[in-house]
Structures are given as structure tokens and as C-alpha cells.
Amino acid sequence: SGARALTGKTFVFTGSLTSMSRDEAGAKVKALGATVSGSVSKQTDYVVYGSDPGSKYDKAVSLGVKTLTEHSFLSFLELL
User: For residue 11, what is the enclosing H or E element?
Assistant: First the structure.
């Protein structure tokens, strides 16, 4: 836990988030040491998706990358 709780983790944000912008969500995980990527790969740790997530979500599922709804993402941050 703590300030660098997500060091070494890579997040991708896709779709429309309701509680914050994707940039704001990215800033939250960057502040915890994570990297934010614009594309999904096997190296991606988490894909956080809102409404209409599109092809990035589909690719995450096909690669077996963990996906989080916006609600799950917010809960996840609270647990850190």
C-alpha cells in the first residue's frame, strides 16, 4: 500500500467514465506509480472500462487481461 502501490502495473482506460475523465483516472494511477498506456497488450495489467468500451475491451478479454468496471476501479483504489 502507499504512494507507490501500483509501481510496475500498466493500466489502459477505455469507454466513457462517469465519475471522472480518463485523463483524471490515469493521473490517479500514475500518482500511485503505475503506467498508463493507450493500447492493450499482454503486458497490460488492468483495463478499466466505461460505457461503449469498444475494441480495447475486446482485446483485453481475448488476451486474458483483467478488466475492471469504473465502479470496480474506484473500489480497487480505495483498497490501496
Answer: strand 10-14
Measured CA to CA, the distance from residue 1 to residue 36 in angstroms comes to 19
pTM of the predicted model over 0.90? yes
Closest by CA position to 17, among listed 29, 3, 32, 33: 29
Tell me 51's DSSP state. Answer: B
For residue range 36-52, list pLDDT tens digits in order. Answer: 999 999 999 999 999 99
CB atoms within 10 A of CB 11: 22
Tell me, what DSSP letter sits at residue 48?
E
40 within 8 A of 28, measured Cβ to Cβ: no
What would the pLDDT profile of 1-35 be if each residue is shown by its tens digit? 567 999 999 999 999 999 999 999 999 999 999 99
Helices assigned H by DSSP within the chain: 22-31, 55-63, 70-79
